[in-house]
Design brief:
The structure holds two protein chains of two kinds.
Chain A (H helix, E strand, L loop, with lengths): L2 E5 L2 E4 L5 E8 L5 E7 L5 E9 L2 E4 L5 E7 L2 E6 L8 E8 L8 E2 L3 E5 L1
Parallel strand pairs in A: 2-11
Antiparallel strand pairs in A: 1-3, 3-8, 4-5, 4-9, 5-6, 7-8, 9-10, 9-11
Chain B lengths: L3 E3 L4 E4 L4 E7 L7 E6 L6 E6 L3 E5 L2 E6 L4 E6 L8 E7 L4 E2 L3 E6 L1
Parallel strand pairs in B: 2-11
Antiparallel strand pairs in B: 1-3, 3-8, 4-5, 4-9, 6-7, 7-8, 9-10, 9-11
The chains are: A mainly beta, B mainly beta.
């Protein structure tokens, strides 16, 4: 069966510090991968998605970036965090065969102080 | 701007009652629709997907889709306290999510 991991689970960072969040998927090949952010009391905002290694599409212009160095690894980064970057960051995957059905990882709760 | 709107809630129902959650979407070309459940502090988990007009049943859950009205709903029969969560409606393709409806089932 497929499993998706995210780490760290929680993170507290000062404004202006860098960020690196990691997501890995097990039990499948060539997954589509997604990064979402959920601000407190709000819906899910799609940040990035990837259909293959090195292929990243950005949905929202901001100070975040994403990379996919390996087939089942997706990384979310920032060089300098803003207060507005606080939120619940969720990684999701979908298969090529059922690209519309997304499954979420456990999430990383980021607080920027 | 593609949008997904859900009844804002919060919604409270007594244990054993039917909970009805509603969602409308703006993109008439949308073909796939999903309901997720999200417990407080946790990530969303998929409950049901629906692609065709009509009803789709899975246990105590029934999803209903009306593409002409651009409307999708989720009925939860025999509601249990463990159903208390936020329910997210999502439209496939570019995957737009509603902001969610908070449901509380009162014992």
């Amino acid at each position: 069966s497929q499993t998706i991991h995210q780490w760290p689970a929680t993170l507290v960072q000062p404004v202006g510090s860098p960020l690196s969040l990691e997501c890995t998927v097990e039990g499948t090949s060539n997954p589509n991968l997604y990064w979402y952010r959920q601000a407190a009391g709000r819906g899910l905002q799609l940040l990035f998605y990837s259909v293959g290694i090195g292929q990243i599409s950005s949905e929202v212009p901001q100070n975040l970036s994403a990379s996919r160095p390996q087939d089942r690894q997706f990384i979310l980064s920032s060089k300098k965090l803003l207060l507005s970057d606080s939120g619940f960051y969720l990684c999701a995957w979908s298969s090529l065969a059922y690209a519309d059905t997304q499954y979420f990882g456990p999430g990383t709760r980021l607080t920027v102080l | 701007q593609k949008e997904v709107e859900q009844n804002s809630g919060p919604l409270s129902v007594p244990e054993g009652a039917i909970a009805s959650l509603n969602c409308t979407y703006s993109d008439r070309g949308s073909q796939s629709f999903f309901w997720y459940r999200q417990y407080s502090g946790k990530s969303p988990e998929l409950i049901m997907s629906i692609y065709s007009n009509g009803d789709k049943e899975d246990g105590r859950f029934t999803a209903q889709l009306n593409k002409a009205s651009q409307y999708v709903s989720l009925l939860i029969r025999d509601s249990q306290p463990s159903d208390s969560a936020t329910y997210l409606c999502a439209v496939g393709g570019q995957f737009y999510f509603g902001t969610g409806t908070s449901l509380t089932v009162i014992p």
